Predict the 3D structure of the following.
Amino acid sequence: MKPYVARRALQRALCTQSTVSVDTSGLLGRRGRVRKPHEHVEYTTGLMHDLSTQIRFRGPLSVAEYMNAALTHPEYGYYMRRDIFGRAGDFITSPEVSQVFGELIGIWSVACWQQMGQPRALRLAEVGPGRGTLMADLLRATSAFPAFQAAVSVHLLEVSPRLRDKQRSTLSATGRQEARVSTSGGPEEAEVMRTKCESGDRAGAVHSGTTQSVVNSSEDSSQFGIRRLQWQAEEASQPVEVSWHGEISEIPRDAPLLLVGHEFLDALPVHQFCRTPRGWRERLVDLKAHQSDTNVRLAWQGGGEQLAGEKEDEAEYARSLDEDARDLDFVVAPAATPASALFTRELPPHMDQAEICPKARAFVQQVSQRVQADGGAALFIDYGSDRPPTDSLRGILGHRFVHPLHRPGEVDLSTDVDFAALRRVVFETAPELRTPQLAEQRHFLAAMGIEARVNALLAKCSSAEMRRALVDSASRLVASPGMGSAYCAFSLAHPCIGQQVPGFAPCP
């Protein structure tokens, strides 16, 4: 099943760090063979201009290079263009479906903190925070634990200026608010702005209506322009400092780390490989006008049968996505590339296709090193399984599947996560860390108390309509088939957490 997915933008930062890039100009033709003439199409603007220029000068791109450009191009990348979340965007994520999701992640955070012995300082990070919905719900839920919020500083790993602004707005708009916006670079006192407004409820969400105090400082402290914001619930003993970072290495190393990533790993670029009579070959992206008998064209077979949690006409799934208009197509490299030589050695002999994501492995390695040194735990919830994906690359536009090469920069791209490979990375990096068995989202949320939380919120609902919306939205989180079984929870934890990571079965 290939669901719709939502992405968060540190994903996008990692997309620039370690993708294998290679000069493939030799793949444009073979020695001794004459290339068939083709029509030369000029793309004067947009991402297709950049992609076509690269392809014409150095040959077809790897799938990883294409994903990197399509998602994170500074001007035309998917994450840099507009608000992509919610019903008006291209997909809906679990935190947008129901506030219960973020609140239970908050309970997971408190449980980990308690099992660590309630340290007086704790770094709570979210990678790929999207709109900031999950963190807003987490902070509201944990306001019932003043000692936890007194210990916590929040760190959002986000490189998109547009999404940083959206996250700041979301955190400022939870319930009633009193905001003070300070300006930097001048001798004047910070301008004080006081606003009181009721936040608009998301579909299916029931807010507690607590009062927050928000202090937003625009002072920059790194090349990424880290912005700090203080969030305080009425029940908390003191404000919670929120900082924005571009990389995990920017988070201070003076306390244990709890890191959360939801639908983050699935948007990191992958390399795709196909088994041929000559051995493993990498799948590449070429201009359709360049296709000839020197490159083997591939019909795209990836994607999925439906979007998890969304109902669409069955005819949509039956249609051929290969019919979507596009100027690019997949081809198979006629010779080995550095990526195929490096990564295919680990592939089992029974596989004919495979996807490998070096970025996900590199990020989990960073997190493992950090947790090993400083203590703490990490929680990733994403699409995937404990086996290597084959051809899972999918495109989503307007809540429907499209060909992944359709309208570059306007289509969401994602793949399934190979959690087994990530578990091997943890073991090779820090073998003493705990890596419990993969858990489906429905089982993880059940273990964290979704039923009790929904019942508590139902008692606060003022109408039958609100109760119905709450039950419907929470039910989507645990539906199978649907979000409850399509998403899986993966965790790594320092031994200070104990033998059992909250929400998971005991580690062997």
